[in-house]
Design goal:
By secondary structure, this protein is an alpha+beta fold. The chain is built from four helices and nine strands. The protein has an eight-stranded antiparallel beta barrel with strand order 1-2-3-4-5-6-7-8. The chain is globular and about 40 Å long. Keywords: Cell outer membrane, Lipid-binding, Lipoprotein, Membrane, Signal.
Length: 183
C-alpha cells in the first residue's frame, strides 16, 4: 500500500526523535489559557518550521473555538515570497483535559495528533510561544505582523532558554495587512 507523501511527512514530524531533546526536561506549559481570549489571528513572527512552512511569507494562524470545545485552526501563508502561491492548512486542536487549556493535540491527519504547548503567553495575549517537548518545531506569534526588536530579542531568549537550537530559527517575513492580497 502506498501512503500519500503528506501523510509520511506528518508521521515523520510526529515521531521525530531528537536526541538532544530527550536530554532536556519536558516543556512546562503556562498555568492557564483563556481559550475565548486566545482565539483569533496570530501572525507567525519566527519559527523552527515544519516541512510545509519552510518558505512561508505572511504566515497567519487563525483559531476558532468550536461549540464542542475543540479548536478549528487555519494556517495561511504565501509560499516562497509575498507574491507566492497561497497555501492553507486546516487542522483541529484537542485541548488536553487538566492542562489549563495550555496543552493541545493538533490533528492535521487522522489519527495522528501533534503536541502543542503554550510555553509562554504575554499577560495581554499579544504574544505567544508555542513549543513541543521534542524541540523540533516552535512558533513565536503575535497579534500584529511585526513587533519591536526588543520584544523579538526577548522572545528568542525565551526560546533559547527552552532548549531550542537557535540556528534553526527562521524569522518569517510579514507585510502589514493592507499590503496583503487575497487574504
Amino acid at each position: 500500500m502506498k501512503l500519500p507523501s503528506t501523510l509520511l511527512v506528518a508521521c515523520a514530524m510526529l515521531f521525530n526523535l531528537n536526541v538532544g531533546a530527550r536530554e532536556l526536561p519536558p516543556i512546562t506549559p503556562v498555568a492557564h489559557v483563556d481559550l475565548p481570549r486566545f482565539m483569533g489571528d496570530w501572525y507567525v513572527i519566527a519559527t523552527i518550521p515544519t516541512r510545509f512552512e519552510k518558505h512561508a511569507y505572511d504566515a497567519v494562524e487563525v483559531y476558532t473555538l468550536k461549540p464542542d470545545g475543540h479548536v478549528a485552526t487555519s494556517f495561511h501563508f504565501r509560499d516562497g515570497s509575498f507574491d507566492g502561491e497561497r497555501k492553507d492548512i486546516h487542522s483541529t486542536g484537542f485541548v488536553k483535559p487538566g492542562s489549563g487549556n495550555a496543552v493541545w493535540g493538533v490533528q492535521v491527519f487522522w489519527p495522528l495528533k501533534a503536541q502543542y504547548i503554550v510555553a509562554w503567553l504575554k499577560d495581554d495575549y499579544s504574544q505567544v510561544i508555542v513549543a513541543r517537548d521534542a524541540r523540533d518545531y516552535m512558533w513565536v506569534m503575535a497579534r500584529t505582523p511585526t513587533i519591536a526588536q526588543a520584544d523579538y530579542d526577548a522572545l528568542l531568549a525565551r526560546v533559547r532558554a527552552l532548549g531550542y537550537p537557535m540556528d534553526k530559527v527562521r524569522k518569517v517575513p510579514q507585510q502589514e495587512p493592507a499590503a496583503r492580497s487575497g487574504r
